[in-house]
Amino acid sequence: ARASGEAAGQAPERPGHDELERLLAELDELVGLDSVKRQVETLVRMHQMAERRAEAGLPSPPVSRHLVFAGSPGTGKTTVARLYGRILAALGVVRTGQLVEVARPDLVAAVIGGTAIKTSEQFSKALGGVLFIDEAYALSKDGGSSNDFGGEAIDTLVKLMEDHRDDVVVIVAGYTNDMRSFMAANPGLSSRFSRTIEFTDYSSAEMVTIVENLCRANRYSLEFE
């Protein structure tokens, strides 16, 4: 098979090819989220194109690493973020692909100087993978008070993202309107998050399908009524 492939001029498969296809199939099996799936697949192809251009000695356009996941709670953002980290690892974009999920309490301390330490600790856990910040807009809710520890967390994140730009992917998530305000309020963040993926609410039919799948997986049965 190897000889025939080489004779046909086909490039050998990359080591992570099978794992990548398996993960993309797992993404495709999620109920709904059609637009999200298309955008993730587009990002995958862009990463692949950039790698092949680099191998050929051609200039590669920058590919969005850090993402905004905008939408209501319960629309699959964490599930997709976890899959996306593993997909990036299969592509070789990140080393390990683990997901570290945090929110404001995990990053912000109640004492001066403590926030930078907490934020750095969580960031370090995510190196090689994905840092997922849920309800990220809560970091900017201090309103410029003297105890603006949320702002300190943002400043620390921006610096760490620059220092480790090739070794981590950061995804910030939250309600669509809140995330727009959050990004617009901080130039340091808005310059690093150039792509937003919208997670729309599930339809009634999709929610029924999700419940049916859960019941089937856990050996429950639903009465017709």
Task: Briefly summarize what is shown.
The protein has 225 residues and is α/β, with parallel strands linked by helices.
What does this structure look like?
With 225 residues, the protein is α/β, with parallel strands linked by helices. The chain is built from ten helices and five strands. A five-stranded parallel β-sheet has the order 2-3-4-1-5, with helices on both faces. Strand 3, helix 7 and strand 4 form a beta-alpha-beta unit. Helix 2 packs antiparallel against helix 4 and helix 3 runs parallel beside helix 4. The radius of gyration is 20 Å and the shape is globular. It starts with a helix and ends in an 8-residue tail after the last helix.
- Tally of DSSP β-strands: 5
Rg result = 20 Å
- Give the overall silhouette: globular
Low-confidence stretches: 1-7
Lateral strand order in the biggest sheet: 2-3-4-1-5
Q: What oligomeric state is this? A: single chain
Helix content: 40-55%
Largest sheet: 5 strands, parallel
Class by SSE composition: alpha/beta
Order of helix and strand elements from N to C terminus: HHHEHEHHEHEHHEH
Number of helices: 10
Mean pLDDT: 89
Which range does the strand content fall in? Answer: 5-15%
Termini gap: 55 Å
Keywords:
single chain, 225 residues, alpha/beta, 10 helices, globular, disordered N terminus
